[in-house]
Each structure stands twice: as structure tokens, then as C-alpha cells.
UniProtKB/TrEMBL annotation:
PROSITE patterns: IG_LIKE
Signal peptide location: none
InterPro entries according to UniProt: Ig-like_dom, Ig-like_dom_sf, Ig-like_fold, Ig_V-set
Protein name (record): Ig-like domain-containing protein
Ig-like domain mapped to chain residues: 7-111
Source taxon at top rank: Eukaryota
Amino acid sequence: MAVVVNPGLDRSGCNLSANSKDVYNGLQRGSVLLLCSCSDLHTKPKKFIWETFRTGRWTDVLNDEHYRGRLQQFNNISPGNLSLLISDLREEDGGDYRCSTEKEQRDMKINVK
């Protein structure tokens, strides 16, 4: 089996799509989709992490019991789509969030009403 590599494909890692600090407004018990993606959706980042400053320090969202059963990721469908869907929003979900790759990060905020 031959593997063909596209010479035009940048293998140097994920460059996040441009966006300024986004503010997302959500309702309690609703959902919010935090957008974060590589400029090339076929580029798989070497590593990425979603963090929140909800507790007064940056903590890993994906391993936080507070979010158990309420998160959905999309990178299994498209490797460069790092977006995060938070369902069943709670008032305490409000605050600062960060999507980080090996190269850069994007900050955003959730307001829950």
C-alpha cells in the first residue's frame, strides 16, 4: 500500500484561525458552541487543550468533573476542528475559556443568563 503525501500540506502544526476574544451568551440549561479551529481543517494539532479560569486558575475543561457528560468535541470528524459544545449550561459555567495548541491560543468568554 502506497502512502501519498500532499507536498502542499503544511505539516508544521496547527495555525489557529484568526479571531479576537469572542464573547458567547448562553441561557441556563441551554448550550454554547465555543469556536476554535486550525486554519486548515485537515491539519491535526500535535496537542491541544481547552482550559477555563472558572475556579480562579486555568484548569483543563475536558478532565473536569464539573463538565462530565456535557461536552462534545468535533475533532474526530475533522482533525482541525477544535470547537467545543457545552450543553446543559449552568450559571457557574460563565467565565473565561482558552483553546490552546502547541503554537498559539485563543481566549473567549461565556456569559450565562
